Every structure is written in structure tokens, then in C-alpha cells.
Amino acid sequence: MIPSTKPQRRTALVCAALFLGTLLLFSRSIGNDFVNYDDPVYVTSNPYVQAGFSGTAVRWAFTTGHGANWHPITWLSHMADWALFGDDAQGHHAVSLFWHALNAVLVFLVFRRLTGTFWTAAFCAALFAWHPLRVESVAWIAERKDLLSGFFFLLTLWFYALYVEERRARFVRTSQYLGFTLLAFAIGLMCKPMLVSLPGVLLLLDFWPLRRLQLKDNPERISHLFVEKLPFVVLSIASCAITLFMQKEGGAVSAALPITARLANAAVSFVGYLQKFFVPVDLTVLYPHPGFWPVSTTAGAILFLSVVTGVAVFQLRARPWLASGWLWFLIMLLPVSGLVQVGLHYMADRYTYLPILGVQMALVWTISEAFVSPRARRICAIAAAAILAACAVLTWRQLGVWETSLTLFDQAIAVTKNNYLAYNNRGLYHARASMSGEAMADYRKSLSINPRYPEANNNLGEALARQGRPRDGLSFYHAALEAKPDLLEAHQNLGNALADGGKPEEALPHYEWVLARQPWNAGVLSNSGIALAMLGNFPEAIARLEAALRLEPDNAGVQQNLTKTRAMMRDATSRGP
């Protein structure tokens, strides 16, 4: 008998609907521009990314901690985009959209394989793909790492499911599939280290839906499942160690908050993510960290989390998916919950990309179990369609927020309080649009909220310099470096201000500090060359200017300064000692 092709056709149709529906919904992002928040670090001002797949650039990708993380596969992805599309943001956005659409299909296939359900898995995938919380990961070019790590995370789960199936069938290919699982996990970690909690997720899947781990199992069987995960744990520990080192070296880790404040933020942020999942409004690029949460807010969050966890434990036998999904959500968010404070935010939409799948699993499978009659199923189908339609409307609207840096930070200012980063970055947009008055007003507003914010101090000093008032900017550069001694831009700008003020000997240490970290910085090479010429060190000055010209051969200003310096050296030589 020839096997029916109806299930395969149905699967293919759902996959096509998820892929094409996601492409259509998120197509609005293709018309968006780069933004001035992290996109310069990752793409638009990164000479290694723009160098393409040269040997030097590839070595850099695997050895750098640029961006305060180690994610070489992500760097290679951005290099490929730049080689194909250059500074055309549309191509970069299209590639991100492709990865997200692919992940939507993978969520469906993975959950169908793990749970044996079809329409429940399809709805779970659509909800994941079309929810407004996904916008930040897709529309922000710098967050390509979310999409790539998401792909390899889902691929890891797929291979793991195959491994379990083969093991149950006692086939000889089990080690092969376990190897594929480990390889996919390793590549995922090289896209974004947030996957470090994946060994815990695999154990949760062993409990449900794979049912390899039962409450009544003997210790020997349980220990076998833990031993099986040891290679994954080793990779996670290595990734954690590398990430912490890179983030500390990059100045991204803050020790300003005590452990009690960080624990409180973890509890509050968990509840905040759930709130944004169920009521996805006022989403923004940055939710400013308040420092210390009110005791009532912290206590309420802890009480809520305790109640939900208690319900999940109470239902452990009857509804094991509740505990499996809820713990998936918690353990995947733990690395980014603020226990190790990184950045200026207390939560971020992008962090939900994979953890929210656990919440969906707990919620959707509970509803699926409760509504089993044909009439109830029809009601569920109508409700599911309405939910997806509402998500699509909100997602389309949120994609418009990411159109430009101006629209992005206008919205951030509108929906949050005391968002000094948003004012600063809106000021950057105004500065690059030659709107110096608006830019300076934004920088001053940012500093009125946080006087020690280094980036705003540096940017205000630079704005004053552009108005022909470099001396007025000196105090702001010093304030920036006092708050953040490794701020490259402040060292560069302070060096320029000192050189313009006739103090090249004081400027040079700041230039040298930058060049030790960015030897490719043509602007600093050129300006340090001028400072050296002012001090009479013409050979070194000419070497610096020539190096700057090799990096930027079409820079007429550098060529002019090189010509003048050579003439000055000839005059000095002709005069003799």
C-alpha cells in the first residue's frame, strides 16, 4: 500500500504559511534605516566587518571581544552582509527577516516532533513568530545574534529529539545524532552566549514532553541523564567564562549595585516580561534601570513568581508541561536577569526571543488540554485567529518605530521616564542632521537626568567643539573619562581639544591610548601626526599621516596635511640645527 501524502502536504502548507506569513508581516522592516544604537559597533563603523572575508578580518572575528561579547559566527554573518549589500540597510534587514521566518518554521517542526501535536504546535509557532516582542530582534540589525542563536538553538532541540527517538528504537545512530546536537549547540554559543542555559532546557524536555525522566525513576537512571549532558555543560561553562571576561574587558559589567538590588531586579524583570507578553504595548528599545526597586514592587514580584512556581509544582504529575515550560522560561532568562548587571536596562524585549517559548508551551498546552470537545475546539480556533490578528497589527505598528533613530528614540522618550540614553541618542541623530541646537538640548536633557552619563558628556563636548568652542568642551570630556575611563571617543575628542588649544604634548597620550586599541583609526592617526609635527617630530608625523592615507586614500584633508608636514620637514632640514 502506498502511504498517504496528506500529512506531508498539510505539514508543507503550514510551513509555507508560517514562512511566507512572517516574511509578509515583517516586510515593513526592510524599508528601515540603520540606527545609531549598536549598529555602528556591529556594522556601520566597523572596519573589520567592512573588510569582508579577509584573513585578518576572520581572525579578528574569532579572537575579538568587540561589542563586549565573543560571537564569531555573528561577525561572519555581518561581514557577508556588508560584502553583498554595503551600506544599503535594506539588504541587511532582508537577511534578518529571512532568519526569523526560518525560525518560525523550525519552532513548528520542533514542537510537533517533541509533543506529537500538530495544530497546537502550529499555533505556538505563529504566536512566537508574529508577537510584537519579536520586533526588536528582527528590526535591529545589531541583534542578528538573536536570530542566528535562535536558529541553532532550535536545531539543537531537533537533533536532540532525533537522538532520543533513535535511542528508544535502539538504533546505532544515537551517537551520531548526539554529536549533531552538541555541534549545533557549540555553533549557537558562537552566535550569542545566551544559550548557556540550554543543558537545563534539555533536562526539562527529558521530563516533558520526552518523558525520559520520571519522578519515580531510580537514582542511576537520573544520574545517566545528567552525565549525558556533561559535554553541553562544559561548553556552557567555557562560554560563560569567555563572556564574563569579554564583558569586563569591554566595560559592560557594572558592580555599582549590591546583590540585593540585582536579585530584586531579576524578580521584577521576570514579571515585566510576562506583562509584555500578555499586554504587548509601550514596547521600546530601552527600559531604564531604576537602580533600586521599591520594596512593595519587589515583594509583589516575588509573591507572584512563588505562586506560579507553586502551582507548577502542584501540577507536576497531572500537567507536567506547566513545570517544564515555566522553568524553561526562568532558567533561560536567568543569565540576562541582571544578576550580573550588563548595560543600562532592567529588561529588554530581545531577551524574550527563546525564553518565551517556555511560557507558550505551558500556556498553550494547558488550553489545548482543557478544550477537547468539537465545539470548544472551534471556539479555540476563533480565539487563536483573533490573537494572531491582534499580534500582527501590533507588530506592524512596532516595526514603524524602528524606521530611523529619530522615530526609535522619540518613542522611547514617550513611553518611559528619565530615559537619558534615549535623549542622548536622539541628540546624535540631530547632530548628524546638522541640527546642533536640538542636539545640544537633548544632550543637556540627558545630563540633567544623569550628570555622570559618559556618552552624553562626550557628545556635548564634541557639539561645543563643532561650534568653535573646543575649550568649553574640555570639562565634559574630563567628566566622561572620570565616569568611564575607557571611553575611546572621549580620549579622541579630548586629544583633539588639547591639540587645538596648543597643547600637543598633552594630546598625544590620549591619541596613543586610542591607537593601542584601534590601530585602524584613520582620524586619530592623522590628528596624532599633526600633533607630532607641532612638536617637531616630522618623521613620525609623516609615518602616521601616510598610514592614515592608506586607510582612507580619498581623504583630501589627510593628503593636504601630509603635504604640509613634508614641506615643514624640508624647511627645518634646510635651516639646519
List keywords for this structure.
3 domains; mainly alpha; 577 residues; Serine Threonine Protein Phosphatase 5, Tetratricopeptide repeat; two-stranded antiparallel sheet
Summarize the structure in short.
By secondary structure, the chain is mainly α. It is 72% helix and 1% strand.
How would you describe what is shown here?
With 577 residues, this protein is an all-alpha fold. The chain has 3 domains: 7-405, no CATH class; 418-511, Tetratricopeptide repeat domain (Serine Threonine Protein Phosphatase 5, Tetratricopeptide repeat, Alpha Horseshoe); 519-577, Alpha Horseshoe (Serine Threonine Protein Phosphatase 5, Tetratricopeptide repeat), CATH 1.25.40. The protein contains 28 helices and 2 strands. The protein has helices spanning 6-26, 39-44, 47-50, 55-63, 72-85, 89-115, 119-130, 135-139, 144-168, 174-189, 198-207, 219-228, 230-249, 259-278, 295-314, 320-333, 356-370, 374-401, 405-415, 420-432, 436-449, 454-466, 470-483, 488-500, 504-517, 522-534, 538-551, 556-575, and strands spanning 287-288, 345-347. It has a two-stranded antiparallel ribbon. Helix 15 packs antiparallel against helix 16 (320-333) and helix 24 runs antiparallel to helix 25. The longest helix has 28 residues, at 374-401. The radius of gyration is 27 Å and the shape is elongated. The mean pLDDT is 93.
